Amino acid sequence: MEPVQPFTITRVRQGRKEPFEDILIREIKLSIAVNGEPVAALMATPVDQEALAVGYLMSENILADVSDIEAIALGEDGAQVDLRGTIDTAAADKLNAEGVVISGCGRSKTANIDPDTIAAQVNRVDFALPAARISEEMNGFEAHCRLYRQTGSVHTAMLLLESGETFIAEDIAQHNTVDKAIGKARLAGADTTRSALFVSGRLSSEMVAKAVMHAIPIVVSRTASTCLGVRIAEKFGLTLVGFARKNSMNIYTHDQRITQE
After folding, report:
1. Is 2 a member of any domain?
2. CA 38, 40, 45, 47: dihedral to nearest 10 degrees?
3. How far apart are CA 177 and CA 179, in angstroms?
4. Which residues belong to the active site?
5. Is residue 133 domain-shared with residue 251, that is, in the same domain?
6. Rounded to whole angstroms, how far apart are CA atoms 193 and 185?
């Protein structure tokens, strides 16, 4: 299934109507089943669906490591991911019982939204980035956004490893981009504990919580954070950077990881 679809629209230019062949992003309901049981359904863009499923399940503590996956398959219609492996059934039950619909685009649930109940360790890693490097990466961010350039209607996430390797993801839902980028990195065997996550959307609580769950020390956005996002980042030792545009940025928490070299 292609992530985009051509669509004929009417465009107005200088007061005149004219037909125009536009490109629209495709939106599907992606079902995730584990060991034959449905776990989640996400509104998503049909690209990198397996990575999205892995990232989402790991973000919710349902899947501890990719080594616990015995098999993963994408359905022929591109709308279902079936995974077999060892999971934390208590975490799956918690998602079903306590999960709330999150504030990002699309429709998804998370059980990791209350800073007092998130099961994660405080991040004390000494990984750091120069402010100039953050500006450089964010100023060139749109170069990675192929689907955005085609449609203007998706979010993007980029995971930058200490080695310089990157994992890029795009989706209609900003939280999906994070799960996709992290899922791609995990499936490639990459270590996310010395990395920075760059995102195009706001730093809401669920976005920050996903970084916390994967022990990512730095998260950067071109827009703002919510109060709850800052509270979660502060408690769990995550460096949160917003309004990273041109040569300026706002560091909300744990500014020691952003250097002036």
Report:
1. no
2. -60
3. 6
4. 105
5. yes
6. 11
Q: List the chain pLDDT tens, one digit each, 261 residues.
A: 889 999 898 888 888 989 999 999 999 999 999 999 999 888 899 999 999 999 999 999 999 999 999 999 999 999 999 999 999 999 888 887 655 444 455 445 565 556 776 878 899 999 999 999 999 999 887 787 888 888 988 999 999 999 999 999 999 988 899 999 999 999 999 999 999 999 998 898 888 999 999 999 999 999 999 998 999 999 999 999 999 988 899 999 999 999 997
Range of the domain at 63: 28-110
| Separation CA 244–CA 117 (nearest Å) | 30
CA–CA distance, 145 with 72 (Å, rounded to integer): 27
**In this structure, what CATH number is given to the domain that contains residue 255?**
3.40.140.10
In the listed set 110, 143, 173, which residue is the last one of a domain according to the structure? 110
